[in-house]
Amino acid sequence: MKKKLAVALTMVFGLSLMAGCGAKEETTTEAEVTTEAVTETTEEETEEATEATEADASSSDAEWAYGEYTYTGDDMVVSAICDYICDELAKGYETGDVGIPTIIEVSRDDSDPEDIKVWGSYWYETYTLEGNTLECQAGGSYPGCMHVKETDAGKGYVVESFDVVADGSDFDESAKEIFGDNYDAFTEIFSNDELRTEKREEFLVEYVTSHSVPATKYQDYGWDAVDLNLGVSDPADDDVVYMGGLYASDEECDANIALFKSAGIPIVIIQEGENIYYGEYTTEDAKLDDGTEYIKITVEGKTYGYHFDEDENGNIDTTGIIVDQDGKSHFAKALDESVAMDMKSETE
Q1: How far apart are the two ends of the chain, measured CA to CA in Å?
Q2: Rounded to 5 degrees, what are φ and ψ at 284?
Q3: Would you put residue 96 in left (φ > 0), alpha (ψ -120 to 50) or beta?
Q4: b/e string for 62-75 if b means 16 or more Cβ within 10 A?
Q5: How crowded is residue 224: how many other Cβ atoms within 10 Å of its Cβ?
Q6: Own/partner pairs, 51-56, CB within 8 angstroms, 24+ separation
Q7: More confident residue, 344 or 144
Q8: Distance from C-alpha of 115 to C-alpha of 16, rounded to nearest angstrom
């Protein structure tokens, strides 16, 4: 079955609820609307009120079609932290439509791959999409130190533990203990509202762009909606967004597969040796002889294949396979975005 590929690549209770985020005001019930319409409105106004109520119910009850937040950058430590925030810190919240993290890194010590320490200000917020606006429902701040471990066989990273700063009157003493020499840098960053807003919007734009969410604004309860800066790409790149890719990591194959969206249209660049195939593509579900499912991808008459591994939580992992033109599979690793953009420059 051929189809166009849609790629979606690749934080227990809050210390304090974020100012501005909160539940919506209670709305008038359908029974109240009906009673008021009978006693105080014309038949035409009653019809309009009923239509508005039905539209609101349809919007709020509709199944979320855009997927959960997934980190799409190439920093696998940040990816592990995002997963931890969305899996563990999110447990204290009702989900809304989607929960999105914000990471403001203060310092990192990666000298020990068994205990990579990342000090930072971490946030988690839930949103509901109303029209073209992501409305914040709730949020929390979690400053502290993430302990990240490199997993076996190059499979990426996982958060082993999280030292979180205590709430209330113990906040300052706890922050000094956890951040140590980084305490002054932390207090400067933690009190910087402008930086907080900038980083929050970066994560929102990343999600909206990579998941094709029809949102152009976000809004905190009681505040005006804020426009999202969705023009994050250089106009010279025709609004190209890198969605992810793989490179074959064995001696028999030197193929790279890079997936993009260009002005919203999915495109692929496949490079093998000196040959580059580029453009819109078709895909087809396929299986290897051992039963492994993969996606056949055809561009400029050339057919390859790819498969991304998934981690234990079902998220896109950093490894996979590439299937060459002869149908032979090769172990592959995640393609760095800088390499993918170099491939793109060769097509211009």
Answers
A1: 32
A2: -150, 135
A3: left
A4: eeeebebbbbbebe
A5: 7
A6: 56/27
A7: 144
A8: 27
Share the mean pLDDT of the chain.
81
* C-alpha span between 247 and 343 (Å, rounded): 12
108 band by pLDDT with thresholds 50, 70 and 90: very high
Mean pLDDT of the 49-77 span: 65
Residue 154: which pLDDT band, with cuts at 50, 70 and 90? Answer: low
Tally the C-alpha atoms within 13 A of residue 53's C-alpha that lie toward its C-beta. 15
pLDDT in tens, 1-18: 333 333 333 333 333 334
Strand partners, 74: none
- Residue 21 tokens, joined: 């985020």
Report the amino acid identity of residue 39: T
Distance CA 203, CA 81 (A): 13
Give the burial string for 168-182 (b: 16+ CB within 10 Å, else e): eeeeeebbeebbeeb
For the segment 320-324, the average pLDDT, to the nearest whole number, is: 94
Block residue for tokens 């020990």: 112
Name every residue whose Cβ is closer than 8 Å to that of residue 249 and which is 6 or more positions away in sequence. Answer: 330, 331, 332, 333
User: Alpha-carbon distance 8 to 75, whole Å?
Assistant: 17
Q: What mean pLDDT is predicted for residues 69-82?
A: 91
CA distance 312 to 32: 48
